[in-house]
Specification:
CATH architecture: 3-Layer(aba) Sandwich
Largest sheet: 7 strands, mixed
Number of strands: 7
Distance between the termini: 26 Å
CATH topology: Rossmann fold
Number of helices: 8
Length: about 210
């Protein structure tokens, strides 16, 4: 049976995974691996949101990018995860403000738009798990999970905290970040870290669902 080993691990809590509704924002280097993990773990209702197409430069870190060059990610991924629902949209601040998150049990943030991430925290922090910078690093053992105000060692995360403080936001929500110092200033990425971020996000989502 497909999920027999997950059921063996989780027992009756597996039913919670099957009935969970998850919204995954961004299916790039982090989000793509998170999606694969959620799907293989038996999460019953997954909606993905992205607007990008696969490019050759994605092939070092993004799931299924080799066979879908030029295709929209949300459409290409449907061929691998047929039960997944997809929304092709650019996730910016305005989109976050207008979107109804009410029906989802969890919102997983794997995007890199600062304003959109801040808007997400303000709108749905109670059901949010957010990923900070995974690029420019090579050591997956430096990946950490904590609440937003205890995160450190990441300039991107520091910027998010700064913007939230400016808005008087004091709530807590879970973030995934790396304490490893960035190795380069320019763009650079390693699937050993970006993929691990996605798997960590999936793990945190599963733990939160089964503990509810």
């Amino acid at each position: 049976m497909r999920y027999a080993r997950v059921k063996s691990l989780l027992g009756d809590d597996f039913l919670k995974l099957q009935s969970a509704k998850i919204l995954l924002l961004g299916v790039g280097g982090v989000g793509g691996h998170c999606l694969d993990c959620l799907f293989r773990s038996g999460v019953g209702d997954i909606t993905i949101v992205d607007y990008d197409s696969y490019e050759e430069s994605n092939q070092n870190r993004q799931m299924h990018s080799e066979s879908h060059l030029g295709e929209l990610k949300v459409e290409a991924l449907k061929s691998h995860y047929p039960s997944v629902k997809s929304i092709c949209a650019k996730i910016d601040e305005e989109w976050v403000r207008n979107f109804d998150f009410e029906e989802y049990d969890l919102v997983l943030d794997a995007i890199d738009d600062t304003k959109a991430k801040v808007a997400l925290a303000q709108k749905c922090h109670k059901k949010l798990i957010s990923a900070f910078g995974s690029a420019k690093r090579v050591d997956p053992t430096k990946i950490c999970v904590d609440d937003i105000w205890k995160s450190y060692g990441d300039k991107f995360g520091s910027k998010i905290r700064y913007e939230l403080k400016k808005r008087g936001f004091k709530k807590k929500y879970k973030v995934i970040f790396s304490s490893e110092e960035a190795k380069v200033k320019e763009k650079g990425s390693f699937v050993g870290v970006t993929g691990s971020f996605g798997l960590m996000m999936c793990s945190e989502a599963v733990k939160k669902i089964v503990s509810s």
